[in-house]
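Practice problem: predict the structure.
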Amino acid sequence: MAAIGNIFKIPELKKRIIVTFLLLAVYRLGCHIPTPGINSAALASFFQQTAGTLLGFFDMFAGGALSRLSVFALGIMPYISASIILQLLTVVVPYLERLQKEGEIGRRKIIQYTRYGTVVLSIIQGFGIAMWMEAQRGMDGTAIALHPGWSFRLMTTITLAAGTAFLMWLGEQITERGIGNGISLIIFAGIVASMPAAVGNTFRLMKTGELGALLMLAIVALMVAVTAFIIYVETAHRRIPVQYAKRIIGRRMYGGQSTHLPLKINTSGVIPPIFASSILMFPATIATFVAHPWMQAISKSLTPTTVIYNVLYVGFIMFFCYFYTAVVFNPVDVAENMQKYGGFIPGIRPGSSTADYIDRVLTRITLGGAIYIAGVCVLPTFLMARFNVPFYFGGTSLLIVVGVALDTVQQIESHMLTRHYEGLISGGRVKGRYGR
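Answer:
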C-alpha cells in the first residue's frame, strides 16, 4: 500500500494517471452513443446470433460498441490493421524500409501514413457496415435501419469514420499526456468492460446451483495459474552473450565490455491469434450473406467447438508466429550492427555466422512461443466444452489484458524509480514485455 501511495506523491505521475482515466472514461461514454437512424431493439436481437462469428470477435475489441452500433462501433481495429499493413509493407517497399531506418523523422512519417490508412479503412468499413445493416433484420423481422437509402449510408459512414479518427486521436493523447500506450489501453478498457457482466452471470449460476462451488474454486485456481504463466512467458528472454572488443581512440580505451542480446520467447505478441481468428471466422460471417447449403456446411464445420476449427486455429497461429517474427526481427541487421561496433558472440565468427546462429536460436524459441500462444488461445474452448464455464477466459483477450497491464506497470515504475520512490513490487523492478 505504501508503494501505491507513493504514486500520488509525484505530481507529474498523478496528473498523467488522472488524464488517462478521464480520457478512457470519454471512450467508454462514446461506446453508448448510438449512430443515427438505427432501431436499437432490432439491433440488439440481431447481435444475439453473432456469437462465434467475426462480428462477435470485433465486438470484443470494440468494447461492445459494435453490438450497439455506437459512434465508436469500428473501434480502433482500422488503426491496428493499417499499422500491421504498413509493417508488412516495409519488407517489400524499399521507400518504407528506408523510412524505418531514418530514426525519429522516419517514424513520424510512417505514423502519418498510418493515420491516412486508418481513415481510408474506416470509410470503407463504415460504408460496408451501412450497406450490410440495411439488409439485416432483428429476430422478429424488424428492420435495423429506420430509413434505408443513401442518406443513411452516408450518415453512417461519416459517423463511424469520424468515431475511429477521434479514437485514434484519443489514443495518441493518452500516449503523450497520460501513462502507457494509448491504443493498447483503449483495447484493454474495451475488454475489461465486459468483466463485471461475466462475474455477475457466474454468481447467478452459483445461486441457482448450475455451477458448483468446488468447480468454481478449481476454475479460479486455474485462472490464477494461467495468468501467472502468461506473465512469466511474456517477460521471458533468451539471453545471448555478447562481448565487445577493446578499441583505442586517441589516448582512451573503449569497449571490452560484456553484455547480452535479449531474444523474446514471444516476439510476435498477439498478432498471430488475431490473424488466425479473422481467417477462420470469415466463412461464418460470409454465411450470413450467402444462404447456399455448402456455404452453411463450411460455416458449421468451422465453429470454435469443432476439432477442425481448433486444428486449423493452432496451425495458423504457428505459421503467423514465425511469419511475423521474421518481419519484425532481422538477424542479418543485428549481426551487421554488432560487427560495426566491435561486438561478437563468444565462439561464433562475426558476420554471416553470427546471423545464422541468432536465426537458429530465434527459430527454436519461437516454436516454444507459438505452442504457448496456441495453448492459451485454445483454453477458452476447452473450458467451455468440458466444464461449461459461463464466461470467456483466455485467448487473445487475456494476452492483451496481461501484456498491457505489464507495460503500464513498468512505465509507472519507471516514473517512480527516477524519483527514488519505492516501486510497485517490493524487492525488484517489474520487467515489461520488451525488457529494460
